[in-house]
Specification:
49% of the residues lie in helices and 15% in strands. The chain is built from 12 helices and 7 strands.
Length: 282
Amino acid sequence: MTKIALLGAGGKMGVRLATNLKDTRFDVDHVEVSPEGRDRLKAAVGVGCMDQGQAVSGADVVVMAVPDRLIGKVLKTFVNDLRPNTKVVMLDAAAPHAGELPERDDITYFVTHPCHPPIFNDETDPRAQADHFGGIYAKQHIVCALMQGPEEHYDQCEEVAREIFKPVMRSHRCTVEQLAILEPALSETVGATFCMAIRDATDEAVRRGVPQQAATDFILGHLNVELAIAFQLSPDGKFSDGALQAIDQAKPEIFRDGWLERVFDPKAVMQSVKDICEPPIR
């Protein structure tokens, strides 16, 4: 039986992963340093914890459910205790892409991340509809990258990824660099920023007299249509002439020329992941 050491098992993400790994073919040793986390894990999953050194030294797979900025730092504390051919599964590309991982050629580094449940889906269960992050009831896609290690380790690590993020639909194979383009560049630098800009604009509409609920219902409904058109998910859908005119007039007011090139420039992506690993002092 494959033995997994789950680090950070009592954190928010760790508890989700521990829950999904329960009753699988994997034998899981849970590691959590904080008493609060251990209590949380025991209450949610009904399992206890093991000493980190004992867990990682006997593991076939180490899953690191620790904060992004700590992945490299934590890994360096036990990398020499791992057996050859151990697979280390990380849940974010920041530390791997930033060069934060310790060098050791005889172990495997694998990175995976959830896409989260898509806006357009076929969920009918109210619990799945309310599972916005995924990994509990709602189906989602995932992305995976084999950073180093033998090719046969990809399928083994992907199986773990499918279990910890289940229920999973598509699993996309990418490179670590491509994962860094997806996050933070696409999903956070662009996606999250645009979402907050839409929220700010909605608040401004409310400030100018539009009822709060009316503004919220109006923009969320229109986003549903507009995203379907933009991503060509509505065969007959297209922007009206008035919408196209508004888009052409708004672009130079809202966006600076060359913003896409600047956001996705490899140097900008690298700086972004480095800032995640070592947040700048403010």
